[in-house]
């Protein structure tokens, strides 16, 4: 049984981030700034939850009257087992990053892929009808592959170091396209390989979904041999946002390619979570400014 909503009385209603670890997260700064700007009686806290305590922590969200939560590594997949309901999109991706608490029930959503798409659109980039290459085959790749397939990309190539995982992401993209009523030619290739080089040369959009290039290993790149094969005008998107400009983006900018950093995906997926919690658009500009300020504070 859940504790009534008014258990918190005049105190701010809590929202949480569940992860292990969580000390690096920008989400508390981002959401608390949004709460203040909107005048909401709410507070966002990061909870370090070890894997063995996940079930207890999730059940506590409802019993203690939390409004909702975000879920991050390593819990995005395991959390599905502890929710009352999971949206079809999150079920397809196999991961949840947002939980909505309603009348004691916990509903799991995934806003990662749509957050990525919203950022693309905000940058004036429409992937429909384009050739896309995703580098990596992890959780971010799954969410982004599903979103791109539903958005109508023409071809989607998943380039990964583990062929079986890359093919699984390509298969997920085909299912996402079918569910959305779109069509996509989704395939998998090894990375690195000659096949990957040929696909990159034909790409309009390249998305790095690996952690390669993340601080402190900032001189690494998922494409260490360079970007010489990419066509002019190619959009290079890096989901890494520490540092703001990775080696991949730096080299792409040097070739006059279009570069997009990953902070916007974080902000927009957070704004989508806000919409699910409060039924109104999240204040993107406020959240973005808070995330940037928190990043600067780390330097």
UniProtKB/TrEMBL annotation:
Binding of shikimate, residues: 25-27, 72, 97, 112, 241, 269
Any one GO molecular-function label of the UniProt entry: shikimate 3-dehydrogenase (NADP+) activity
GO-annotated biological processes: amino acid biosynthetic process; aromatic amino acid family biosynthetic process; chorismate biosynthetic process; shikimate metabolic process
Binding site for NADP(+): 136-140, 239, 262
Positions of the SDH C-terminal domain: 262-292
Leading EC class: oxidoreductase
Catalytic activity reported: shikimate + NADP(+) = 3-dehydroshikimate + NADPH + H(+)
Segments forming domain Quinate/shikimate 5-dehydrogenase/glutamyl-tRNA reductase: 128-173
Enzyme Commission number(s) from the entry: 1.1.1.25
Keywords: Amino-acid biosynthesis, Aromatic amino acid biosynthesis, NADP, Oxidoreductase
Pfam families: SDH_C, Shikimate_DH, Shikimate_dh_N
InterPro entries: Aminoacid_DH-like_N_sf (IPR046346), NAD(P)-bd_dom_sf (IPR036291), SDH_C (IPR041121), Shikimate_DH (IPR011342), Shikimate_DH-bd_N (IPR013708), Shikimate_DH_fam (IPR022893), Shikm_DH/Glu-tRNA_Rdtase (IPR006151)
KW Transcription (keyword) present: no
Record-annotated active site: 76 (proton acceptor)
Keyword Transcription: no
Domain annotation Shikimate dehydrogenase substrate binding N-terminal: ranges: 17-99
Quaternary context: Homodimer.
Function: Involved in the biosynthesis of the chorismate, which leads to the biosynthesis of aromatic amino acids. Catalyzes the reversible NADPH linked reduction of 3-dehydroshikimate (DHSA) to yield shikimate (SA).
UniProt similarity note: Belongs to the shikimate dehydrogenase family.
Protein name as annotated: Shikimate dehydrogenase (NADP(+))
Taxonomic source organism: Caldinitratiruptor microaerophilus
Gene from which the chain derives: aroE
């Amino acid at each position: 049984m859940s504790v009534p909503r008014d258990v918190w009385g005049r105190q701010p209603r809590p929202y949480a981030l569940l992860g292990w670890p969580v000390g690096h997260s920008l989400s508390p700064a981002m959401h608390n700034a949004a709460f203040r700007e909107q005048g909401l009686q709410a507070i966002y806290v990061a909870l370090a939850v070890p894997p063995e305590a996940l079930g207890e922590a999730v059940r506590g969200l409802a019993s203690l009257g939390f409004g909702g939560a975000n879920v991050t590594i390593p819990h995005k997949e395991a959390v599905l087992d502890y929710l009352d309901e999971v949206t079809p999109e999150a079920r397809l991706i196999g991961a949840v990053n947002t939980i909505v608490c309603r009348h004691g029930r916990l509903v799991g959503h995934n806003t990662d892929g749509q957050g990525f798409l919203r950022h693309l659109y905000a940058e004036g980039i429409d992937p429909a009808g384009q050739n896309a290459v995703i580098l990596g085959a992890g959780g971010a790749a799954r969410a982004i592959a599903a979103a791109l397939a539903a958005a109508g990309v023409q071809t989607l190539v998943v380039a990964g170091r583990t062929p079986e995982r890359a093919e699984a992401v390509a298969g997920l993209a085909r299912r996402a396209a079918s569910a959305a009523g779109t069509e996509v030619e989704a395939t998998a290739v090894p990375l690195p390989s000659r096949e990957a080089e040929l696909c990159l040369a034909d790409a309009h959009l390249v998305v790095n979904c690996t952690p390669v290039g993340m601080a402190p290993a900032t001189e690494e790149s998922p494409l260490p041999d360079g970007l010489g094969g990419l066509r002019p005008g190619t959009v290079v998107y890096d989901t890494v946002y520490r540092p703001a400009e990775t080696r991949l983006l730096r080299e792409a900018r040097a070739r006059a390619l279009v570069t997009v950093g990953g902070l916007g995906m974080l902000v927009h997926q957070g704004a989508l979570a806000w919409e699910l919690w409060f039924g109104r658009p999240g204040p993107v500009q406020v959240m973005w400014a808070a995330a940037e300020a928190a990043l600067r504070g780390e330097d």
